[in-house]
Amino acid sequence: MKKKSIRDFDLKGKKILIRADFNVPLDADLKITDDTRIKSSIPTIKHALDRGGSVILMSHLGRPKGEANERMRLDPVRDRLKELLGRDVRKLNDCVGSDVRDAVKSIRPGDVMLLENLRFHKEEEKNDSSFAKELASLGDIFINDAFGTCHRAHASTEGVTKYLPSGSGFLVEKEIRYFESLVEKPEKPYVAILGGAKVSDKIQVFGRLMDNVDAILVGGAMAYTFLKSQGVNVGGSKLEADKLDLAKDILDKSEKKNVKIVLPLDHIVADKIDENAETKEVGREIPDKWIGLDIGKMTIKKFKEVLKTAKTVVWNGPVGYFEISKFGNGTKEIAGFLADLSATTVIGGGDTAAAIAKLGLEEKMSHISTGGGASLEYLEGKTLPGIAALNDRE
User: Fold this and answer.
1) 37, 78, 238, 332: which one is catalytic?
2) Residue 198 designated active-site
3) Is-catalytic flag, 350?
4) pLDDT for 305-320, tens place per residue?
5) 373 is an active site residue
6) Predicted TM-score (pTM) above 0.85
């Protein structure tokens, strides 16, 4: 990796300002329902502490739109961090200002401090230079370990690097390693699985992947736009009518590049999107008024045939409406098959990562990204500002 990491710095006696991703889901009682992102930050925090540094953590939570919001404070994160680290974590009531500066002055090696939600200040998302400079003044070294925000040029990801020596944490380092290998030198055969709702969300990634992959398996709601572009009846399924020409263009380009795009051969359909809906399995054509919500048995079999020889697999987007269990079989079957595959398997964050976690298969995958949007932009070949801004290795 060309960027510096936390390993490249002498941390003894230093204040380490770490941008973590603690944007975790909370229930109505403000209890954390998935602490994966907090757990992912622990190795970097422990490394800084073990090497004689003190740690100042900063993160956002939710979308408070530049104003303090009592339901988006980081207190639940502080409580979970204390449990995972086995030591006290002092949480401040803001992330900038005189009280914060005074508190940081008292920090000692081995201490952990958590700043309040960065997005309580509109300057964070605006990448305001004064705000970034004030954040930077709290530390001696900046470490970015929040891959899920690396595709955003915010004050706490890109702005602070102008004022402090900077590098990646272990999580970001691992993300870069896996995604660089996918973009630059994937082992072949290389197969991509693309699901989710919209073709428009994945236009760039289709284009980029066709330069690298041998096959693309298409599931999820966007498959119906592709099928419709071929003249297949998709009933009442979700459809991007204004993207039919685009879908056809992608299919045409794939033929010219000799990349196999595999569309569903059959479907699980329902009369409505509901746990109690009437369902049935149909062939390629979906009857009028029925909604396609998952891939069928023939499609699962076809997908597995393509995947069985793969040496590299990247998966972004479930292949069915996974949130409702009766439409989650396709995703479950493909995930289970990948778990036993002798291949590098990279899961592109977001809903796909949530599906893998729900199935308890995290340990069976080579890498599960913590950033859905960031992983997608990496696959598209875009520059991620939060990574580009870090110091290069000499």
Assistant:
1) 37
2) yes
3) yes
4) 999 999 999 999 999 9
5) yes
6) yes
